[in-house]
Automatic annotation (TrEMBL):
Name of the protein described by the UniProt record: Galactose-1-phosphate uridylyltransferase
Reaction catalysis annotation: alpha-D-galactose 1-phosphate + UDP-alpha-D-glucose = alpha-D-glucose 1-phosphate + UDP-alpha-D-galactose
InterPro entries: GalP_UDPtransf1 (IPR001937), GalP_UDPtransf1_His-AS (IPR019779), GalP_Utransf_C (IPR005850), GalP_Utransf_N (IPR005849), HIT-like_sf (IPR036265)
CC cofactor: Zn(2+)
Active site per UniProt: 219 (tele-ump-histidine intermediate)
Keyword Glycoprotein: no
Species assigned in the record: Microbacterium invictum
Length: 391
């Protein structure tokens, strides 16, 4: 057994009655259990007894001088699981026949990705993490253009398992379980934002093979980037060119229009005015809040049922589940905290029951989008679907 594997059973109380317990996998990666309020699980967790290979070296980033974008080249990802049979689900609790990533039965579990795109960032006291050879030296360093520019892809990638069940998605969870995941997102956002070299933290869920999902298990991921992403860089520029209260203006504009889908005390979901995708939904909190960690208990409590209704409404459009990307955009760690608002953007290429929108020449090559469905029409259909949803 690898001696890096440890279990810390000391519980940490989080919001809404959620309890956090920490452990280490056999190769030294972090594993965190988040127990539901009133969980039926006991306090004990098994030690990971697998004999694992050492962790891969941290990937390298290369700069595209035409755009300034940084591209992480992570060859270890070629070895990740690809549509394994149910009996070898790597996100299910370990069994005698399935040496999976999680040693014990769990409610919600978060662990470091075995084949990460970013990180690990720094060497540890135990020496089990390779040290970054050429880490970024601040945002100014990354903004300089140059042929052949490279840096180590410091950061961290985590997997968030919503349930021990082998099939499903966030939308199939109970309100209680959804609330536990929200607490996990908040806890991990705070922890990852404090890591050296991390500039932005991004929780998301990919759903469906059409999106590229390689595991059917209900799960999402959290990426911690060593730079501010291109999408957020453009957003910061838009805020600079308009007004620091841009998100408040967007919310007022959408709430007074025909595309609102759901509106609560703290959150509003809507089809955006200039939607790119056949199915595209945004959701905003009603106040300026930079990330999950900054949400109040009341905001987190309302988010669980309203988010579930939204996802189940999207699935009610057709007889089969709809593929989507659910992207939680958060403010960068060190800039834009007072202007960039936490916001959800759900996008799906599904334009009919049996048709997908493919990104061809104009969209893929030029970034010039052509919408297939008027946003007002999409909003009408989604509202009707959501009305029939029960939690």
């Amino acid at each position: 057994m690898n001696t890096n594997s440890t279990v810390n059973l000391e519980p940490v109380a989080l919001g809404a009655g959620v309890v956090k317990r920490t452990a280490r996998l056999a190769d030294g990666r972090d594993l965190i259990y988040f127990d539901d309020p009133g969980t039926t699980l006991g306090p004990d967790r098994a030690v990971d007894a697998r004999d694992l290979d050492p962790r891969p070296a941290t990937a390298t980033m290369r700069q595209d001088i035409l755009t300034g974008d940084w591209i992480s080249v992570a060859a270890a990802r070629q070895n990740r699981a690809f549509l394994p049979p149910a009996e070898l689900d790597p996100l299910a609790p370990q069994s005698e026949t399935n040496p999976s990533e999680i040693p014990s039965l769990y409610d919600v579990a978060v662990f470091e990705n075995r084949s990460p795109s970013f990180g690990p960032a720094l060497a540890t006291a135990t020496g089990d993490v390779p040290e970054a050879a050429d880490p970024p030296r601040g945002l100014a360093d990354l903004e300089r253009l140059g042929l052949g520019n490279t840096r180590t892809s410091v950061g961290r990638c985590e997997v968030v398992c919503f349930s021990p069940d082998r099939t499903g998605s966030f939308g199939t969870q109970t309100v209680t379980r959804a609330r536990t995941v929200i607490e996990a997102w908040a806890d991990r956002t705070a922890a990852l934002s404090a890591l050296p070299g991390v500039e932005q933290v991004f929780p998301f869920e990919n759903r469906g093979e059409e999106i590229g999902v390689t595991l059917q298990h209900p799960h999402g991921q959290i990426y911690s980037y060593p730079y501010i992403t291109p999408r957020t860089t453009r957003l910061l520029d838009s805020i600079d060119r308009t007004a620091p209260d841009l998100f408040a203006r967007i919310l007022d504009f959408e709430q007074s229009g025909p595309r609102v889908l759901l509106r609560g005390e703290h959150w509003t979901a809507f089809v955006p005015f200039a939607a790119r995708w056949p199915i595209e939904v945004h959701m905003l909190p009603h106040r300026q809040v930079p990330d999950f960690a900054a949400l109040t208990a009341d905001e987190r409590d309302e988010l669980a049922p309203i988010y579930l209704r939204l996802l189940r409404g999207i699935d009610a459009l057709y007889e089969t589940p709809t593929p989507y990307i659910a992207a939680w955009h958060q403010a960068p760690v060190h800039v834009g905290r007072d202007t960039v608002r936490l916001n959800l953007q759900i996008t799906s290429p599904r334009r009919a029951a049996d048709k997908l929108k493919y990104l061809a020449g104009s969209e893929a090559a030029m970034g010039a989008w052509i919408g297939d469905i008027p946003p007002e029409t999409a909003a009408d259909r989604l509202r009707a679907a959501i009305e029939g949803v029960e939690l």
